[in-house]
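Case study.
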Amino acid sequence: MSENEGIATPPTNITQTIERLDQMQDELPKRLKQCASFTRRHLHLVAVSTVSDMAKASGVAPSVYIRFCQAIGFSGYSEMQGLFRVQYTSFRPDYEQRLAQVRPDVAQGSGQLLGEFAEAGHKSLLSLGNSVANEGLNSVASGLAQARILHLLGMRRAFAVVSNMSYLLGKMDVPALLHTDVGHLDSPPLMTPDDALFAVTFAPFSEDVIQQAREAAERGVPVYGLSDSEKCPLFEFAREELIVHEHEVAGFRALNASITLTTALSVLVGSQRRES
Amino acid sequence: MSENEGIATPPTNITQTIERLDQMQDELPKRLKQCASFTRRHLHLVAVSTVSDMAKASGVAPSVYIRFCQAIGFSGYSEMQGLFRVQYTSFRPDYEQRLAQVRPDVAQGSGQLLGEFAEAGHKSLLSLGNSVANEGLNSVASGLAQARILHLLGMRRAFAVVSNMSYLLGKMDVPALLHTDVGHLDSPPLMTPDDALFAVTFAPFSEDVIQQAREAAERGVPVYGLSDSEKCPLFEFAREELIVHEHEVAGFRALNASITLTTALSVLVGSQRRES
DNA sequence: CCGAAAATGGAATGAAAATTCCATATGGGA
DNA sequence: TCCCATATGGAATTTTCATTCCATTTTCGG
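After joint prediction, the assembly is written out as follows.
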């Protein structure tokens, strides 16, 4: 028995975990600080790695990494890993119970709801780090950077995404055209094979967007896509496609992963163009 | 040479795995087909689940699930899981070395840049939870919910924010009007004191937005604001104002906190209106 | 309806991982 | 400089997991 200086209560969600990580950063001994630092920047690895993996990557011994988990407030690595795995496994009986605690759902308190969306945002950003799609980010960026004019297409929920891109690209002097009104797009001279089209659509997919993109592709315009599902029809004709997954709260999704990905993409396009 | 009914070579990537799954679907015995069917629909679970998890979820015994993995061509579950984990990690032993270098510099590698934005996103969401402004979220929501028509105003970086709100509110049958073109706004009959204006502007503040909002306020229209600074001129005449802080990467800001806050706000407005 | 071949599930085994323990190293204060 | 408290890493232990084995059941051809 002794003074457990550590906090007794384990974090119950990702948000709390990150907070505690940041907050303890300063008061930890050297090796544990290494763990905190690495983990903070590679949260998405926890769900799919073993202690020795994380320890090695942090540059410490496995036992040290476990001590780190305990310093954070968990009973050990397994408990911490469990927290990060829940987001992938919400349907399983064992996990459903935990999930129920984390998510006393629906729009009651406002702070409550905001917290839920923030948590969902964290998760979305985590799976963004995990996504296979990211590997293609560079090649999509160079594809878009070569375009004479970059056409942006997206409706409903996706419209915010492309309008944000439009703003960023404009700020970096990349010639980009945001197609706000479907219909005036298909005037033939507007898009040429020298251009590129970046189309965004989430399930259930917008017929208009698909249609416009398909016609562009048939006309020889390189089409790149962003979606939240592999079943997206854009896949049929797009050069490359990025995929993001947004977690939802009470049936609503924010745009954290999408906006973050496309912001990074826009900056990449901007910097690649500047180099040439 | 010999007659192993199973295919000798294991799939080397996810695509191959899926193909083989689909292709074998018909020629498998009942229980194994169950495994194939469930796994096909929940591929993402493999990386973070144990055999017994997958077996239970598929409705079979663990040993059966392993036999299923072998039928696909893997040596066992571990090998199959390894394939799925690699997709998530891109995990290299020499990680911590790179890490030290990468941290300070900016827009070089693409995955790195995305990681930086994800990191900034986490921070933004954290400060969102901490911010004082959020306490006012409920009262802003009820203010907006009482409006006959909810006018949305935002330009540049803020435009994506209000257009997202416009979509969400529309989806919930809240009468909202997105002002895309400044200038046609100030036709007097368009906004009345029965309405409300939600204006978004980030530093450096858009003159147009401030001006429009001020005129609306002088005409008796309740104005609510969202900004990233307390120095925002909207403060001078807005009923209430929300504040978010977005972390930046290489001079660029994503919209994680803003989008998350306004998404929550929109849902609140929608649910409050439904109650009356 | 019978028998052989295949399929299935539970128990036994072996491997790997998480966690604890302990001897050694390190750093800060007297 | 010495001493004590704390930190650290490797070895030992325990737990969990993957895999194999085998008895039982099911299926299908005759």
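Observations recorded in class. Residues 29-32, 60-64, 67, 78 of chain A lie near DNA strand D (CB under 10 Å from a C1'). Residues 71 and 265 of chain A are 37 Å apart (CA to CA). We will return to this complex in the next lecture.
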